[in-house]
Each structure stands twice: as structure tokens, then as C-alpha cells.
Amino acid sequence: MKTMASSEVVGRERKHLNLLAFDIGGTTIKHGVVTAKGDILQKGIDVTPASMALLFELLQDIKHRYAANYTLSGAAFSTPGIPNQATGFIDGGSALSYLHEVPFKQKAQECMQLAVSFENDANCAALAEMWLGSARKMKDIVMVVAGSGIGGSIIKDGAIHRGANGYGGEFGYMVMNKHGETFSSITSPVELAKRVSAAKRANIDAIRVFELAEAGDEVARVEVDRHFYYLAVGLYNLQFTYDPEAILIGGAISERNDYIPRIYEKIDLLIKANSMVDLRPNLWKCQFGNDANLIGAVAYFNQSFCPKPEIAG
Fold first, then answer.
1. CA angle 81, 82, 86 (to 5 degrees)
2. What are the backbone angles phi and psi of residue 150, rounded to the nearest 5°?
3. What is the C-alpha to C-alpha distance for residues 221 and 239, in angstroms, rounded to an integer?
4. CA dist., res. 1 & res. 18, Å (int)
């Protein structure tokens, strides 16, 4: 088994690096060996542990699985929350409260005995698309990821725009109406499923909610229509706030073939009803799906440790 310290990574040619990439989510941890050029050599998935101690035990186990077959040059993490590159902590909040209690980067370095980078999950998805995916030839994009909440990222002139307080791209906190409902609480597929489940007194996921709506279920139909309306409002506002080349839509629910067309239907109604400027956001589906965060974590590792990382096409 061979691993590499941080000092050995700097200056090493990217083509020789195999990186251990992690996408830490609220329910699962996706992981894999990814070359520094973005090729996934092997990947897997495990259930997210219930504590920090168990998490680091799992990370060590995953490392040993891959290290039997690959020389690992570093560990690249995609995480929820707001990674603080100065302190090593993950600021903000997430479904994994224990992630925010310790200096994650330093603890991960001790655990993995590798050079470590960490970046927000939505930022990772955006970097993946800028590097090798749908937005490869673009410099200014917005990423919106619909899942347990609404994640987001702003890429400005080819680099992550974090803002003065590190909350750049945290679109889920936007207040959408006079009732104080946020972009996340209204448009998150998970929250959508919770509302329909409560109304029907059943355990229904978001995919099933859309199926019920298509079948004519009135409760599901109303909630899905509301989902698309507020999604259109949020995306239209983002277009005029930042005016990106494209807004990329991610998350499992966005894989539906009718997802972007239905957003456009609501945007067109907004434009018509309010005599707005006839500027439609350029909406794109993400190319890499569930692999985006792994690839984007490696993109950020390249930026952090390797010379001239060529993140944008």
C-alpha cells in the first residue's frame, strides 16, 4: 500500500495522480478512485455513519479497500455545509450536525494520511460541469441542485464566488413569499414529498409524487404545480441577479425528461403576465448526475495542489 503526503503532491504531474474522492451526503457516502484528469477508475457507496468517530472508521476502511489496487496521491472531499478553508471547519449547518463540530480538514488528514481538500457539494458539482461537462466552454454559470434542500453555486470568471461571508450560492435561504417560505422549503423534492405524504398519510418519495400527479391525483398535482412555479420564480430571479451564461439544474429529480420544459412553461407565464423583459434563462441539465460531486471534488483538489489545473475547458 502506497500513499502520498501533501508536500509530495505539489508540483507532481497531474497525469500520474490517482485521488480518493468522497461525496458525503446525509444518507450515503459515494466514493471512488478518480484520476486527476477526471476519469473514474472505480467507485462504490456506503451508508453514512451516525457519528464522527464512525465516519472516520469508515473512511479508513474505504481507503484500505482502494489502496490494495491503486497508489493514492490524495483525498478530495465533497461535503455539505460551508467548508472554511482557513480554519478547516465546515461552517453553516446540514443534516450531519457532527460534521460541524471539529476541524474536519485536519482530522481527515490525520485519518487518511494523505493530502486533503474539501469543498461544498454544490460547488463541486459546478466545478465538474465547468471542467469536463455541460458548461465546459463557459466562464459564468449558476448551479442549482434540488435534493433534501436547494443547494447552489456561483461560478464567476471560472472561479467559485463565495461572497463576503462564504454564503455565495446558498440560494436555498431565499425567502419566496410573504409567509416566509424559503426556496428550499417550497421547491426541495424532499419537502415536496413530505407535504404530499402528510396529506395522504402515507410514506411517498418525490419520484412517486410526480407519478401520482401524472395519474391525476389532485393533491400531488397541486403540489407539483406549486413546485414548478416557485422553481421558475427563483431561477428567473437568479438570472436577473447575476445574468449567467447558463443555469445548470442538478439532483435526481432533474433527470426527468419533462423537468426543464415544465420550468420553462412557468417562466414563460411569468414573462407574459408581468410584461417582463423577454429574457429566458438558459437552463441546462447536468451531465454527470450522481458522479458530479466526485469529479468536482477532484477538480478542486487540482486547484488546491497542482500547478495550472485547467479547471475550465
1. 145
2. -115, 110
3. 27
4. 13
Q: CA nearest 1: which of 68, 95, 55, 80?
A: 68
The C-alpha cell at 49 is 455513519
pTM of the predicted model as reported, rounded to 2 decimal places: 0.85
Give the residue carrying C-alpha cell 462564504. Answer: 166
SS3 of residue 204 by DSSP: coil
Domains of the chain, each with CATH number or no CATH: 6-126+290-305 (3.30.420.40), 137-286 (3.30.420.40)
Is pLDDT of 313 > 70? no
For cell 407574459, what's the residue?
272
Q: What is the separation of C-alpha 194 from the centre of its chain, rounded to a whole number of angstroms?
A: 21
User: What cell was used for 44?
Assistant: 462504490
- DSSP H or E stretch at residue 222: helix 218-242
Q: Tally the C-alpha atoms within 13 A of residue 102's C-alpha that lie toward its C-beta.
A: 15
The number of beta carbons lying within 10 Å of the beta carbon of residue 11 is 9
Taking the CA atoms of residue 214, residue 217, residue 219 and residue 222 in that order, the dihedral angle to the nearest 10 degrees is 40
CB 137 within 8 A of CB 297: no
User: pLDDT digit string (tens) for 234-277?
Assistant: 999 999 999 999 999 998 888 899 999 999 999 999 998 887 67
Side chain identity, residue 292:
A
